[in-house]
What we know:
By secondary structure, the chain is of the alpha/beta class. The protein contains 9 helices and 7 strands, in the order E-H-E-H-E-H-E-H-E-H-E-H-H-H-E-H. Strands 3-2-1-4-5-6-7 form a 7-stranded parallel sheet, with helices on both faces. Helix 1 links the parallel strand 1 (5-9) and strand 2 (29-34). The termini are far apart.
Amino acid sequence: xxxxxxxxxxxxxxxxxxxxxxxxxxxxxxxxxxxxxxxxxxxxxxxxxxxxxxxxxxxxxxxxxxxxxxxxxxxxxxxxxxxxxxxxxxxxxxxxxxxxxxxxxxxxxxxxxxxxxxxxxxxxxxxxxxxxxxxxxxxxxxxxxxxxxxxxxxxxxxxxxxxxxxxxxxxxxxxxxxxxxxxxxxxxxxxxxxxxxxxxxxxxxxxxxxxxxxxxxxxxxxxxxxxxxxxxxxxxxxxxxxxxxxxxxxxxxxxxxxxx
Length: 260
């Protein structure tokens, strides 16, 4: 990525922060954005300390078209033509169908789906016919019915957007997605305060643990880099095996031995 310009959304903390860090270490010039201004400024200071990293930040709501324009204007004006886009920003409403309000639903769709739509559209304008790469962060909940209605629906929509754009924008622009499983970030800090829930979710994976954010950032880096030059329209599932099997928990061994 040496000398390339990247935009990373949701970069103030967690996976987005780690993605930006990996991009900087790989030689990219990075524009970062997040709704949390204080955390974003701290992330910018730290990222600039990595081998003199060229980093710029702009705080705002990624679901707001004005934020998208401002982030890309900043990147183009101070760093150059944007060639890599990582849509990491996400938002979850942990409510059932009965308790999800219309406002909850619309907010989830806005951040998890409309935001990436806006950034992808602006990214294509920035490239102006050049070559580039888009990586969208979806979720294992975007592949199977697991989680909460508003969140899963938005992430399933993001998977669809990824595949459609891979078709529409080929061959100049590669478009892929990552579908993370349980990852230890501020995004789910409240859940991780409950040891019972942490254990239950860990047991739902084949690897029996949560991911570190940097493990997912490594997957994003791979899809954004020339190492994945023949990969497009793909959803790379990084969920510790959660979606690979019917997980029967404590009964798994007994089930596996059935019929012996």
